[in-house]
Amino acid sequence: DGGITQSPKYLFRKEGQNVTLSCEQNLNHDAMYWYRQDPGQGLRLIYYSQIVNDFQKGDIAEGYSVSREKKESFPLTVTSAQKNPTAFYLCASSPASGAYNEQFFGPGTRLTVL
Amino acid sequence: AQRVTQPEKLLSVFKGAPVELKCNYSYSGSPELFWYVQYSRQRLQLLLRHISRESIKGFTADLNKGETSFHLKKPFAQEEDSAMYYCALRSKAAGNKLTFGGGTRVLVKP
Question: What is the DSSP letter of A34?
């Protein structure tokens, strides 16, 4: 269950502010992912990274940005351009390849825009 | 584009009754399908994957390519099965990313 940490657990932001969500893993996984979880819509992929210093947009990347400067860290910035940022954000990691490269999830960060 | 559909948002069953969660997908390649589960106050975790053809916690799921389905079944539901269940499809062609369905909440009543 451990190995992936997200902080903070709860985050409040005023409209117009950028905010950065932290995701760290000590599983030595190459790939990392950010999802947004909304009721009734499941999880939607925001960004993913298969290797350090490289990342790709997911299905709903607009208004978000990421960096992957270290293998163990994949922070997500929610910018003021994101129209509806209030949501539950999940980070995941997995080995880069292999038939059994299961994604392991963090505990999540709940972001509320006031 | 790949898509995963879970038509039921909520399934309510009595303890000991069978439960079946439906999952349909659309994907042009050879699919890899998974079921993930999220118990109350716990992390999302993998329940089972089609490639393993395994039974976990009494649950099984069979991939039916003709009907493009991957329904999750358990013959006798238990109260501890109450959780949120997500069906997911993995695309090797797109960095192993997962596409999730909207989720089905299962409530097992005593």
Answer: E
